[in-house]
TrEMBL record:
<keyword id="KW-0472">Membrane</keyword>
<dbReference type="InterPro" id="IPR000184">
    <property type="entry name" value="Bac_surfAg_D15"/>
</dbReference>
<protein>
    <submittedName>
        <fullName>Putative sorting and assembly machinery protein</fullName>
    </submittedName>
</protein>
<feature type="domain" description="Bacterial surface antigen (D15)">
    <location>
        <begin position="79"/>
        <end position="324"/>
    </location>
</feature>
<dbReference type="Pfam" id="PF01103">
    <property type="entry name" value="Omp85"/>
</dbReference>
<dbReference type="GO" id="GO:0019867">
    <property type="term" value="C:outer membrane"/>
</dbReference>
Length: 344
């Protein structure tokens, strides 16, 4: 290099699909301080030793330098390409970053599932008179998933798409019924957006009857519209014994969520984070003249990742409900707790 000083502009790492992104940044970021080939070789040797100590790689790192012929100045601009031969490698991914600017992409995973099932349905405590009838249902279903999230429990980037459709072929209660569900998530370093939609197409709509309650959608609870009691939103009826109101589900469903997350302890941000969120949910039926509640809530809380099994949320905040007359009522809700693998 005739004694010229190098300036590393960009580092690209390939093959490290299973390695934590934050760990890669911590390992390779010191390379930006290297000013010569010998310093780069020494730094790569140190990184290689650490990755082998963590049992990440099977073979030594392979490094190549890309020189740019433009913008030649006192320092020679150079890019590094590092190939990682990772253990249990199953997918091709890449990580690329500039100093103080980090991006990452992962090839998304697709799944297609077809199903067929038959079930006999009986309600021992009928909510609606028609639902007290026992019925036999046979159905075929299709499920499609697309997932590029870096972590399904505590994602900081990526997308998730879920679509399903179930067609009831031999339903003694409601005839031919098609139930469709669609949900999506978009995750960024501090912002997460999510939504889910549901629609039932019963063949009996012109007869002014209701679909079977087991086929309906329900909203409310710590994993859907936070701070609301479980399955409390949507069409409701008043029960004489015991006295009170219960939700009967809906044929049309929509729910949205927005969350801003932030680390509480920088060293533990991959397992513990805080968040500020808001949720909205609405359920309705094709034919319904009773009480119908929609809900919106907002608040803050703490998210815990329990190993790689589930996600635990502790939240508190406010909730608002709107009835059919569009009048609003609100109440403060204390701490609520939820544990699941999927949250709105």
């Amino acid at each position: 290099m005739n004694g010229e000083s190098l300036e590393i502009g960009k580092i690209r790492v390939t093959g490290a699909d299973r390695t934590n992104h934050a760990l890669l940044v911590e390992l390779f970021d010191p390379l930006f301080q290297c000013k010569s080939v010998s310093e780069i070789n020494e730094a790569i040797s140190n990184i290689d030793g650490q990755m082998q100590a963590f049992e990440i790689t099977k073979k030594p790192l392979s490094v190549s330098l890309e020189f740019s012929s433009s913008n030649r100045g006192p320092k020679v601009p150079v890019n590094l390409v590092v190939a990682v031969d990772e253990k249990s490698l199953t997918a091709k991914t890449g990580t690329e970053w500039r100093h103080n600017e980090i991006t990452m992409w992962i090839k998304g995973s697709f799944s297609h599932i077809f199903s067929f099932g038959s079930v006999e349905r009986t309600l021992s405590a009928p909510v609606i008179t028609e639902d007290a009838i026992s019925s036999f249902k046979s159905s075929i279903g299709y499920l499609f998933k697309y997932d590029t999230r870096n972590d399904p429990l505590l994602p900081s980037y990526g997308k998730y798409f879920h679509a399903s459709s179930e067609c009831s072929l031999l339903d003694q209660h409601s005839g031919l019924t098609v139930k469709n569900e669609l949900s999506s998530q978009f995750h960024f370093p501090i912002l997460s957006l999510g939504g889910c939609f549901g629609l039932i197409f019963p063949s009996h709509v012109p007869q002014n009857t209701l679909s079977f309650i087991d086929d309906k959608f329900f909203l409310g609870g710590p994993t859907s519209v936070r701070l609301f009691p479980l399955r409390s939103l949507g069409p409701q009826i008043t029960m004489p014994e015991p006295p009170g109101k219960i939700s009967t589900g809906g044929d049309l469903s929509a729910a949205f969520g927005v969350s801003f997350s932030f680390p509480i302890v920088s060293d533990l941000e991959s397992i513990v984070r805080g968040h500020i969120w808001t949720n909205f949910g609405h359920l309705s039926n094709y034919h319904w003249r009773g009480e119908n509640l929609s809900g919106i809530s907002f608040g803050s809380g703490i998210i815990f990742k329990i190993f790689n099994i589930a996600r635990l949320e502790a939240n508190f905040g406010w909730r608002f409900t709107a009835d059919k007359r569009e009048s609003l009522s609100s109440s403060f809700v204390g701490p609520s707790l939820g544990i699941s693998t999927e949250f709105l």
